[in-house]
Design brief:
6-stranded parallel β-sheet; alpha/beta; 11 helices; single chain
Length: 260
C-alpha cells in the first residue's frame, strides 16, 4: 500500500472573532484529503493576522488569539499559533507559510507524539504544508497590489491550496480564468461543503454590537470571553476606518532603485 504524505493545514486570517465555520473548514478539508488516499492530515494550525494588517474593525491580536484557543479546546488536532500576530509588524502570508513549513521540518529531529518514534519512521516522506481557505480567497489574487505575483506563484507552486466552497463563489471558474492558477491546479484542492453554513465574522460582530444572540454560531466559551472583555463595540468597529490595508500600502509604494 502506498504511503500517505503527511500534511499540515494552515489557515491565516483575522479570526475576528473565530466562528464555528472557521473550524468546520478544517474538518471538511481533512475528510476530503483523507478520501483522496494520498494524504494523512497530521495537524491543523490557525494563525491570526498581525494587528498591523490594518483591517477595519480588527481588534487586538491578544483577544483574537485567546478566543481561538478557547474555541479549539475540544480539538485534538487543530491548534492556534500566535507567531504571526507577535511579529513587530504585518508580514506577507507567504512568509508565514515558510515559517511554519520550516518549523514542521524540525519534527524530523524530535521524538514524535506517534508511538515515541522519530517522525521519519512514522512518515517516511517529508510533510507538506497547504494553505486552507474559503473558495472566495482565490478572488483576492486579482486585487491590485494585494499580492506580489511572485508570492502567488510560490504559494500555489511550492505549498498549494485547499479551498472550501462558499455560496456565490465559483473557484473552478477562477482557476480557469487564471493562467497561473491553471498551471498549478494540480496543487489546488477544491472541497465541497454539502451543508451550506455561511457564518460571517462580520455578521457576528454586527449582532454582538446590537445585543443579539450569537449562540450556536460561535462557541459558548468565546461568547463568554467577548462579554467579559466587552470586545465588540461601535468604537471597536471604527478601528482602522478609512485606512488602507497594509499590503496595499506596501505593494503600491514606488520602489527606489537605489535602495532595492
Amino acid at each position: 500500500m502506498k504511503s500517505r504524505i503527511p500534511l499540515i493545514l494552515l489557515a491565516c486570517g483575522s479570526f475576528n472573532p473565530i466562528t464555528n465555520m472557521h473550524m468546520r473548514l478544517f474538518e471538511l478539508s481533512r475528510d476530503h484529503l483523507h478520501q483522496t488516499g494520498g494524504y494523512q492530515v497530521i495537524e491543523g494550525i490557525i494563525s491570526p493576522v498581525n494587528d498591523g494588517y490594518g483591517k477595519k474593525g480588527l481588534v487586538s491580536a491578544r483577544h483574537r488569539v485567546a478566543m481561538a484557543k478557547l474555541a479549539l479546546e475540544t480539538s485534538d488536532w487543530i491548534r492556534v499559533d500566535p507567531w504571526e500576530s507577535e511579529q513587530d509588524t504585518w508580514i506577507e502570508t507567504v512568509k508565514v507559510l515558510r515559517h511554519h513549513y520550516n518549523e514542521s521540518l524540525r519534527l524530523l529531529q524530535k521524538p514524535s507524539k506517534y508511538r515515541n518514534l522519530s517522525f521519519i519512521f512514522v512518515f517516511p516522506v517529508l510533510p507538506e504544508l497547504k494553505l486552507l481557505c474559503g473558495a472566495d480567497f482565490l478572488q483576492t489574487f486579482k486585487t491590485p497590489n494585494l499580492w506580489k505575483e511572485e508570492h502567488i506563484t510560490e504559494v500555489v507552486e511550492k505549498f498549494g491550496l485547499v479551498c472550501v466552497s462558499r455560496a456565490g463563489s465559483d473557484p473552478a471558474q477562477h482557476i480557469k480564468e487564471s493562467e497561473l492558477l491553471s498551471k498549478f491546479q494540480h496543487n489546488i484542492f477544491l472541497v465541497k461543503e454539502w451543508i451550506q453554513n455561511e457564518i460571517s465574522a462580520t455578521q457576528i460582530r454586527y449582532a454582538l454590537r446590537r445585543g443579539l444572540s450569537v449562540k450556536y454560531l460561535i462557541p459558548d466559551s468565546v461568547i463568554a470571553y467577548i462579554a467579559h472583555h466587552n470586545i465588540y463595540t461601535e468604537e471597536s468597529e471604527r478601528k482602522n476606518e478609512g485606512d488602507l490595508l497594509q499590503p496595499l500600502k506596501l505593494h503600491s509604494t514606488p520602489v527606489n532603485p537605489l535602495n532595492d
